[in-house]
Amino acid sequence: MMKRIILGLFFALFAGIGAKAQCGAVNDAIKPGEELTYELKFNWKFIWINAGWAKMTVDTTTYGGKRCLKTDLESYTNKRLDLFFRMRDTLTCITSEDLVPLYFRKGAAEGNRYSVDDVRFSYRNGKCIVDQYRVVNQGKKRTNYQEAAVCVYDMLSILLQARSYDASEYNPGDKILFSMATGTDIEKQTLIYRGKDIYKAENNSKYRCLVFSLVEYVKGQEKEVITFYVTDDKNHLPVRLDMYLNFGSAKAFLTGLKGYRHPLESLVK
Question: Are 106 and 89 in contact (CB under 8 A)?
Fold first, then answer.
């Protein structure tokens, strides 16, 4: 569930300057102190249910002796939904100030299942080295060590990267390909730029947005996983996420924001 919340609402570290330049991005969208809050809604048999909340914060930290960015995403269901499905997820990622992935951790309590994914990124000889493991219900640790010739991201760092993209030269239908660490493997992912749209928030505010879709391919057929709307300004704030689940659909709506870097020029007055 959290995988989909993220993707549509960092060497041992710091060795290899060349790799750092390749996997980083010019960060002109995000600054420490940013805080975004979301309301989650689930669709069940044509009924939309207020399901819970999520909060994403960005701050500074020290990692490997260097000043870095630390991003946290917390999400939880409300007490009413806890009776049917309880979710308490906490994601943390650490990136360099130019958004190179360094570390990622996901602790997910979903129903009766509790899992921890731990991913450490390092860079050597032009390769991205990904050392990751997963533990489920305090059972056996499942480890995976891979060296990739391409940059590899995690659920949060790819969101930070996407916010740094300059979409001015994109055309609807353009595809962005990237690799993502899942805790047990590295998977190929596809992001498609859908174009621009006006999004009306529940408080009646309107935003000019860029629309992207994360898709997967099942038997050669494109399947929408998540569609997300980011403000068409220098902040590129995620204001709405549409998630397509096995048991229905869910949405995340931006309800509060502070500490953003640039004026909200996407706000339609």
Answer: yes
